[in-house]
Amino acid sequence: MEGSQDSKWVRIRVFFLIFVLHSLSIYLFTRGFLLTRTELSDSFSSCSDIPDPPCTVHHRRFNGSDDSSGVGGGCWTPPVFHRIVIIVLDALRFDFVAPSAFFEEVKPWMDKLTVLQRLALEESSSAKIFKAIADPPTTSLLRLKGLTTGGLPTFIDVGNSFGAPAITEDNLIHQLVSNGKRVLMMGDDTWLQVFPHHFQESYPFPSFNVKDLHVVDDGVMEHLIPSLYKDDWDVLIAHFLGVDHAGHIFGVDSTPMIEKLEQYNNVLEKVVEALKNQSGPGQPHENTLLLVMGDHGQTLNGDHGGGTAEEVETSLFAMSFGSPPDSVPPNLDSRTCKFGPDGEKMCFSSMQQLDFAATISALLGIPSPFGSIGRVNPELYALSAKTWNIQNCDASNCKVCSNLEAWMTNYMNVLCINCWQVKRYIDLYSATSVIGFSKEDMLHLADVYGRIHSSWSNAINAMSLEEDGIPEEIHNNSVYVLQQKIDASSNFLAYIAEIARLKWTEFDLKLMGAGLCMFFVSLLVHFLFIIRVVRLCKFSCTSIWNFRWSCMVSSLLVATRASSFLSNSYILEEGKVASFLLATTGILSFRGSVNNGKLTIETLLLLLFNILLGCSMDDRFSKQAIGSAYMSAFNISISGINISHFIWTVFCETSPLLFLSMLALLLYRCTSGMSHWGGYRRFFVNGTIVSYVLIGVHWILESNSMNFPEGLQYFGRIFIPLVIYASGCGLLLMLVIAQIFVKKGVTDQAEGVVIDTVAMSSACSPIILVLSGRQGPFVALISILGVWCIIRLSNVALKDSTGVHGVDPVSVTQWSLLAACLFFYTGHRCSFDGLRFGAAFIGFDEFDLIRQGTLLFIETFGFSHIIPILSLPFLVTLPHQVSCKTDTKGRFFLKLAQVFLTYGFITAITTAFTMVCVTIQRRHLMVWGLFAPKFLFDVVGLILTDVLICLASLFYM
């Protein structure tokens, strides 16, 4: 294994073999685990579909010339609204709309949409506030898909959130267009991507630049109010994005967020005024429904994608313009009420977003989407006075029906068709999908549906009275009978929604099992290669004993962390677990130093370092902790300091520049002592330091405390990051060229690898620092401190009597735990709401999927994967570890291979436990909100680790 090119490929081919095995096993497992539900793209509802009896009677009355609703155009159900205005406020939290009286603590962002609260209070019979519950994952595209199809998009669809493919299955927009409704859209251009040929007129605006708060909103406001005075549309959709973007960049508790909410309140006042002015008899909005709604919520730091209450709870405000209707029966009323400070009674209702498509279809008199499994919401359906029309009372009743009986009869008829539509979809889905609902579920559904069918009959025979044990006089009460029918239908639809949420995703256990088996085979191969490398190192007996002891400690640490993934609570606290285990290694080192009477400064620094990490991750980076603006500014919190104080503001502005200067000085001082740098120093060290200077200028020009000219701000915001990206890529390219063609004149292979490692790390660092924001330099400095402590402590861990050094597995484990800590310390989480989307637009205003995806990927994994793996050779190459002259070139590269193999094995072990976890928990309530995102982050991290180790082995070995 001495220096030929052939021997190099012999040394590194094992890394590529492990990479291939991991990739194949993950591919098989993912194909089995993340299968999407079968989309019935060829099945569409139409007016010609005839519902099963007894719904057929009601269907015939509402279809064609027999329509008596007075609105016209009825299909399955009588239409009760001519027009609908849908205003979508992206990421509209529930507490943005609901009065602050419903919450224990009043926050600055509450009670800003006062126009909606006032209308719900003053016109409670025709205006309501709903808490709308979304289904995770709470990404915008999935919520639009769920709202319009009435189905439950599966987790694998979250990968399409940036590509926005057209929706091919039946949906509300398709039904609107197919039934002659004219749809006008303005705002988020995602609507045009998912419904490319559906809108009669549209005004789309780019949606992915989260740094822009105004372009989309200003475009919508330009067209919204004028459109309300036109008569060339039936459904108007206006999708605002400012609140969502303000949350991503600044957080909920921020001035831009409050300004956005106040701006929306002014817009909504103008919208309501325009609609009211035209709501008189014979005017365009006499029979119009206004909906102001969110597609999902957001956490306090402005993120969404997961399944927490803040993310799934959004708002829906509905108002009917026209004569006010009566109130729904108490059994169908989900209102929660409180008395405000002035004694006024304030209420809100609750509904599932799953019910949106079915309810809007019923209100407009069009067929529900074929795949909808939602229920027509009674409170939203009752907002129109036309649903209380006495003409629609059952003809079998010879008595005059009350308004309540008339409405309940209408609603019962709507639910009858609703149940029939859902049942036929479930039957076809189970018959055509590869793995449908279980036989037991289908039998139970058929039984429940059969009993509902029989209950639709108006005649109740004496046998059923005897079996139920209910007095006959109660059955003579038509309201009671109607209520029983409505309850039975609602329970049937709720049961279908429940089993769909539990079993919607189709798991192929054979593929999952094959993937797991292959992964465990790869672990065995990985372990055998580590054993072979260790044996080739030929340690002495003392070293072997120490090595085995270190292996036991390392195995215990890795097993403890990996097994914690079997619990959802520990996954939520994964950063604290990693910090605790890293602190445990520091305590072990401290105990060993005390026993040996050699207490070192490194031991104390490692303990202090862990205290800093643990305290920082305690609360600040939880979902409820801190706004993105502060996190992007600087990540140090000091107890008792008011963050709005002038001194603290100056500190936050200047400290990143100070730490960046310290980082540049540290790089200069460390490389100045090396005698064989040559051209490396000119191209890499000086180039990196110049990039650091540009980063500082970029932050200064972006500062809110200084009013620079607009042109200069644009220069700092766009041009400088582009220069940093270009210089970083150029440094990496020159580094590869120098590695191939330039001889460094280094006789000691270890010193050559040190030079290569420093050059590689310095070339990558500017891009990662500028993407990480102002926290980047401080994170880099504390990571260097942690690395220094680990390396200094490792040089006494494995020494034999001849002075030959080995690689301590505990040191590699500490390195891995440090990388995990840095992932969470920088504000990330294993969930889609943990992605910092603002980083993807540093240097750019326009969205490009590949470009922005690459930047977001680098920012997410920069400090936790890229820098740690590329810096692994430091565990072998630093001077105090390689000073022994008996260390031959072959043994040096064996130790380098051992470091890479051990680090990759630790990562693979944790990923294996994650795969086992999601297999066990695949039917868990939090599988898509927690376990599946954790699985995706871990497998992506493992593949990235394998790729980086392969590239590092090519470069360093």
From TrEMBL:
The protein's matches in InterPro entries, at most eight in alphabetical order, are given as:
Alkaline_phosphatase_core_sf, Phosphodiest/P_Trfase, PIG-O_N, PIGG/GPI7_C, PIGO/GPI13
Which source organism?
Acorus calamus (Sweet flag)
Q: Which residues form the GPI ethanolamine phosphate transferase 2 C-terminal domain?
A: 809-949
What's an example of a GO molecular-function annotation for this chain? mannose-ethanolamine phosphotransferase activity
Principal place of residence: endoplasmic reticulum
User: What's the name of the protein?
Assistant: GPI ethanolamine phosphate transferase 2 C-terminal domain-containing protein
Query: Highest taxon of the source?
Result: Eukaryota
- SUPFAM superfamilies in the record, alphabetically? Alkaline phosphatase-like
From the Swiss-Prot or TrEMBL record, state where the protein is found: Endoplasmic reticulum membrane
Gene Ontology cellular component annotations, sorted alphabetically: endoplasmic reticulum membrane
Q: Does the keyword Transferase apply?
A: yes
Q: Where are the membrane-spanning stretches? A: 12-30, 511-534, 654-671, 683-701, 721-741, 753-772, 778-798, 855-878, 899-923, 935-956
Please name the Gene3D superfamilies in this protein's record.
Answer: Alkaline Phosphatase, subunit A
Pathway participation:
Glycolipid biosynthesis; glycosylphosphatidylinositol-anchor biosynthesis
Stated membrane topology is: Multi-pass membrane protein
Please name the GO terms of the biological process aspect recorded for this protein, alphabetically: GPI anchor biosynthetic process
> Which key words are in the record?
Endoplasmic reticulum, Glycoprotein, GPI-anchor biosynthesis, Membrane, Transferase, Transmembrane, Transmembrane helix
Q: State the family named in the UniProt similarity comment for this chain.
A: Belongs to the PIGG/PIGN/PIGO family. PIGO subfamily.
